[in-house]
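Human: My hope is that you can spare some time for a protein that puzzles me. I am handing you a single protein, as its sequence and its fold in token form. Could you go through the record with me and say what the backbone is doing? Take your time, and here it is.
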Amino acid sequence: MEIAIRGRNVEVPEAVRHTVEEKVAKLGRFLEGMEKAEVHFSEEKNPRIAEKEVCEVTMHGHGHIVRARATASDTLAAVDRVVDKLEHRMEKLKGKLVSRSHPRRHGSVDFLPDRTSSTSEEEADDDDGSLRIVKTKQFAMKPMTPEEAALQMDLLGHDFYFFSNAETSRAAVVYRRGDGFIGLIDAT
């Protein structure tokens, strides 16, 4: 597994690098085929935050992305917490992949139509009052079913996931609703 370790405005000691490489490499036992791991260290600057050390790990493989973020008062404790979170998420992914291969035991994701059409947007105002884009992301999208997209959303720990719907060949979004169910927005 290829492991990239970076620090954002912090130095990562060699002993911490070695420990991170060992622990992240061991995560491969949960799910074979994880090809790449990116580990990012940073530090919270707010003096009111006691757990200043931040460790974020993103793993790529099997067409899935598994991400976890943890904070602690020291770097190694943050690493231990993020590894625990990743173990849990990878076990969950493996269970879902196995249940997918056994369709009789497979429970599908509940999609309910969202009847609300209200839009609430947060506006980023410039001095002149116009909207501006402050961040742009680009990523490769492989076609997937809404169930796979919901799984990916859960693995990333996000509230929504943008994907290319394999059933309709159009852009779509799955999102977590307030009632705990999953919603689907499909472009027409």
